[in-house]
Amino acid sequence: MKRNTFLMLLITWVVGFVTVFQWRIQDRAGNEEFSLTDDGRILVPIAAFTEKTCEPKQKIGFLKMHKCASTTLQNIFLRYAHINDLNVILPLRRWNYLGSPELFSLKLVNDTPWHHLGYDIMALHTRWDHSAVKQALGGDPIFVTIIREPVELFESLYSYYNLYSFFEKRNLYEFLDKLEDEKFKRKNDRFVDKIGRNQMLFDLGFPVKDFGKENKLKDFVDGVEKKFDLVMIKEKMEESIVLLKHLLCWEYKDLVYLKLNSRAQNEKKKLSVNQADKLRKWLKADNYLYMKLRAVFDRKVEQFGYKKMEEEKKKLSSVTKQIMEGCLSGKKKPADENLIQEMRKSAGCRLFALDEYSFLDEIKIAQWKRADKKELQSVGSR
Prior knowledge:
Layout: H1 2-20, E1 24-27, E2 32-36, E3 43-48, E4 60-63, H2 70-83, E5 97-98, E6 121-122, E7 125-126, H3 130-137, E8 142-147, H4 150-160, H5 163-166, H6 172-178, H7 199-203, H8 214-227, E9 230-233, H9 237-248, H10 252-255, H11 273-282, H12 284-304, H13 306-327, H14 337-345, H15 350-353, H16 356-380
Parallel strand pairs: 4-6, 4-8, 5-7, 8-9
Antiparallel strand pairs: 1-2, 2-3
Helix pairs in contact: 2-16, 8-12
């Protein structure tokens, strides 16, 4: 009798388990299992075979740098926040900026109905003020950002923001021809007061008037190195993700990504060596930032270990492949717009491909609900 009862309970448990989880993905390299919940919305771990030696970090300040694959990284942070019910620093209106050209400050989010919940994640475009972001997050946050080779970055800015129109209908080649012309005053102007020369330093909050002051530039970049726990490199995306994984003590299933907001190769302008050198000279301040922090990044990779890095990149690739194939029902497609549209059709995978504004809307709704719930609990306890 007891044996029959035990068997019935076991069968009931197995049936319930199959109902709750639609499918699972086995990362043989990392020896971890993953699944989608029954409604297919989010990925969650269902088993862990390795003992953790650290706790996942959940207080994160990410500076979303312009045209540095930052939308791709932002999606990672927003997914993690959404899945784990973390609060993101967001404005009330439907906008993806917090400040700029003015620096970030708490007054930009003090009018939101969720500001009393406290904040865990910063992941929007802003003009960085380290002290203000740290104050907004509270606790002991991890600070990260990403940078890119300055010539490539400016070419991307020129295309994405249609600076052709802003700079008196000059294409990038014509713009470069006019760089050394003293009469061409507009070259230092910023599109909508945000976009232009030395974009990375501008996003970091460095004063435009100090672009040519070497001592101030050096001190500022030294400060960036000290304040940010990790400055990732766009050209070394896989290595950046591996270092980020170990810094945050996350799992690779949290860090799988699609390339979002990227252009086709045929849309990119090819510059000659002389043109690139001329542009790099004009972007001297950003180039100093990049070279200094690229060297710091390379040292981190060396300290991590080249062999270990290659092993970790294989794990990331394995988890990514399995999740993507699972999301696409076994269809193999390149990481392009077709893949993104296919992902958006799948309930369980759509967060990977969700556009920024739609994702921010969902997070706002979730935070609003949490704020209302807390308010009701507060009223009920009076």
